[in-house]
Amino acid sequence: MNNSTSDPPLDAEAIKAKLEALRSEHRDLDEVIDRLVEKPPFDQLQLQRLKKRKLGLKDQIIRLESQLIPDIIA
Q: Which backbone phi and psi does 36 adopt, to 5 degrees?
C-alpha cells in the first residue's frame, strides 16, 4: 500500500484516475481468482495471497472514494 501519510494530497482528477486503475486491477484479480478455482487442485496459498491483495485494493478504493465526498458542515 503505497499511499503513505507523507504523500501530497491528490486533486480530484488524480484521485479519479487512481480509482479507475485500482478498480481495473480489482476486476482483473477477480478474473484470476475465478480461473484459479475453476481447475482443482489449485494452490491454496496463492489463492489466499490474491484474495488478500484484492481486499487491500478494495480498502484503497474506499479511502479514495471518501476523499471525493465533500465535507459538509451541518
A: -65, -45
pLDDT tens, residue by residue, 22-63: 999 999 999 999 999 998 898 999 999 999 999 999 999 999
Is the Cα torsion angle 29, 31, 33, 36 positive or negative in sign? negative
Phi, psi of 18 (to 5 degrees): -65, -40
**Could you tell me the CA-to-CA distances from 37 to 6, 16, 18 in Å, in that order?**
39, 32, 29
A 10 A CB-CB count for 22 gives 19
Q: What is the reported pTM?
A: 0.76
The C-alpha cell at 73 is: 458542515
Residue 32 burial by CB count (10 A; 0-12/13-18/19+): exposed, middle or buried? middle
